[in-house]
Design brief:
alpha+beta, two-stranded antiparallel ribbon, 11 strands, 19% helix, globular
Amino acid sequence: MKKFAFVLIVFALINSICYAEYITTDSRISQDRFVFGGIRIGDTMGTVEKILGKPPRYEHDEKNMMTGSVVDSWHYVWLPRDYTLHVSFSDGRVSEVTSKGNNKIMTQDGIEVGDNEFMIKQRYGEPSDLMKSANTRNYIYRSAQNESYCLCFYVESGVIRTISMMVEQ
């Protein structure tokens, strides 16, 4: 019996080291904090154009097969030949904003790609969901008013690499 318990404990330790850990809490943040680069979920294309200007590249999809919505994607460049900011629209309204580069686009609470991981919890507290593996973490914050609104921070080796604000479909 002791040998079986030891094998079970060793297996559990190996399993926790080799696979990602997923933690869920019941924390939520206020929906008025869901602002990224001055853009809010639900903003119009005109509002985004006033804030960021015309995109150098855009895509138009007549209809998303899963949602039935008309989808547009705008891509902005900050690094040489690299689209570091992506804004998606569903039926002409912002449904996602994602930053993957040091482009000085910040959350309302002053966090941007390239910042240290510790700033996330310092500004937002405990995440609604946290996925962890060896050297990556994905912090997910949900709105207190609308659970489908998500603010996500992808962290690699202690540095924020991607920030996304979206409404889950």
